[in-house]
Amino acid sequence: MGYFTISDLAQEFHVSTRTIRYYEERGLLTPIRTESGQRLYTKKERAKLKLILRGKRFGFSLEEIHEMIALFDEDRTGKKQLEKTVEYGRKKIKEVSERIDDLLKLKAEMEALLSDFEKRLREWEDRAE
Amino acid sequence: MGYFTISDLAQEFHVSTRTIRYYEERGLLTPIRTESGQRLYTKKERAKLKLILRGKRFGFSLEEIHEMIALFDEDRTGKKQLEKTVEYGRKKIKEVSERIDDLLKLKAEMEALLSDFEKRLREWEDRAE
DNA sequence: ATTTTAATTGACGTTGACGTAAAAGTCAAT
DNA sequence: ATTGACTTTTACGTCAACGTCAATTAAAAT
């Protein structure tokens, strides 16, 4: 109980097992192994996969995501480490905020475009009376 | 006046000329040509490039961006065409909205993480008194 | 016990999004 | 008119992010 197999995760997140192994190759996931060598994923690893996939959806590269995930993994005991982490976290949050703003702009542009088309459509319909 | 060369755009948007030609190969841009065959870009083409690059920043593929740009290019005169366009536009706007929501979630997660680290850091500092 | 299903590593293949180099033509400046 | 910067097409190269076998081993189902 409490452990997931590779295909559990593959099914849950709709990715291939190859993909999950690839993320491990790249150092993003670190499952434990059974005696016979099969991978077992804890809830934490599952959470990491979730984060990876979310990151991917915004176009972050695996390398960037790797850096983000480091926040979960590294040993953050010393003060220096904590400070570095906090600083890095602020930076990343800022990046995300910028992306959000950018997306809002895109949305606004698309909405303007759409309302123009809608107007034209109404004109068409008025004409048809 | 009013026309841009390929390197004008390359400089303005910090992309290579190869990239711009590639977008044309993929049907995303359609510059006009001089007598001798050199590409000239109108303001509209420039706007399209801007949109392409914005789209890229959110991880949309060129194929997806192509679909979005079609809103600018196609001949949208008939009622049917207009209706299709409006419907498609709504769909795309919804997709963008979902991405924004997703990013906001990510931001919230990161902020929660960060405040945890900040708390630990304060504890560290208190201890140091 | 044996068939079926799932897991492992290894290696090669593929696709998207360009980079890079070559050969030839064009434009602007001197 | 020649130099040098810029452009064109063609073509091969590259890198990330996987896909797709293949051969082998392990687990689950019957």
UniProtKB/TrEMBL annotation, chains A, B:
Residues 93-127 form a coiled coil. Signal peptide: none annotated. The keyword DNA-binding applies. GO terms for molecular function: DNA binding. The keyword Kinase does not apply. Gene3D superfamilies: 1.10.1660.10. CDD domains: HTH_GnyR. Pfam families: MerR_1. Residues 3-71 form the HTH merR-type domain. Keywords: Coiled coil, DNA-binding. This is MerR family DNA-binding transcriptional regulator. It comes from Geobacillus thermodenitrificans. The lineage of its organism: Bacteria, Bacillati, Bacillota, Bacilli, Bacillales.
